[in-house]
């Protein structure tokens, strides 16, 4: 029996929408397409498999010059606590990140580099997918 293949068999498969830090998973960062002239876009994703509490403190992407955290009508600088043992989903009807000063319209079907900067974990290089049309 060949034991050298066993570690590969036990490793969890990575999917195209999964991105990992040393202690959490980021699942499917996405946004909607934007209209010409739009200067913001909402960013959504899910954090799970959180082994240690951490805080998302920054985002870098060539499509925007900044980001902030939005919860209902309240917007504040990006500082998102992600608690150990809990899942956290950013979604359209609640807590989400707003990309600021868009550099160009976001077109459906496109993907862009997205770097997530954490307080404790190393930065995570992910991809931002433009999945759905703009809302009317």
How would you portray this structure in words?
The chain is mostly beta strands. It has a single domain, classed as PCu(A)C copper chaperone (Immunoglobulin-like). It is 4% helix and 48% strand. It contains one helix and eleven strands. It has one helix at residues 6-10; strands at 18-20, 25-32, 40-48, 54-60, 66-71, 74-77, 80-82, 88-90, 96-100, 111-118, 124-132. Strands 1, 2, 3, 4, 5, 6, 7, 8, 9, 10 and 11 form an eleven-stranded mixed beta sheet that branches. A hairpin with a 4-residue loop joins β1 (18-20) and β2 (25-32). The chain is globular and about 40 Å long. Mean pLDDT is 90; it is low at 1-14.
- In whole angstroms, the N-to-C terminal distance is 60 Å
Number of domains: 1
The major pleated sheet works out as: 11 strands, mixed
| SSE pattern | HEEEEEEEEEEE
**CATH architectural name:** Sandwich
CATH superfamily: PCu(A)C copper chaperone
Summarize the amount of helix as a percent range. under 10%
The parts where pLDDT drops under 50 for at least 5 residues are: 1-14
Number of helices: 1
* Shape summary: globular
Descriptive key words:
Immunoglobulin-like, 11 strands, disordered N terminus, eleven-stranded mixed beta sheet, 136 residues, 4% helix, mainly beta
């Amino acid at each position: 029996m060949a034991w050298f293949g066993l570690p590969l068999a036990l490793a969890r498969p990575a999917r195209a929408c999964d991105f990992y830090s040393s202690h959490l998973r980021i699942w499917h960062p996405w946004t909607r397409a934007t209209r010409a002239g739009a200067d913001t876009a909402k960013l959504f994703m899910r954090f799970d498999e959180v082994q240690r509490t951490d805080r998302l403190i920054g985002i870098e992407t060539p499509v925007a010059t900044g980001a902030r955290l939005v919860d209902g009508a309240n917007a504040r600088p990006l500082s998102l606590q992600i608690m150990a043992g809990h899942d956290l989903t950013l979604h359209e009807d609640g807590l989400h990140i707003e990309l600021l000063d868009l550099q160009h319209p976001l077109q459906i079907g496109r993907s862009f580099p997205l770097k997530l900067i954490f307080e404790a974990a190393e930065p995570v290089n992910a991809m931002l997918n433009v999945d759905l049309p703009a809302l009317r």
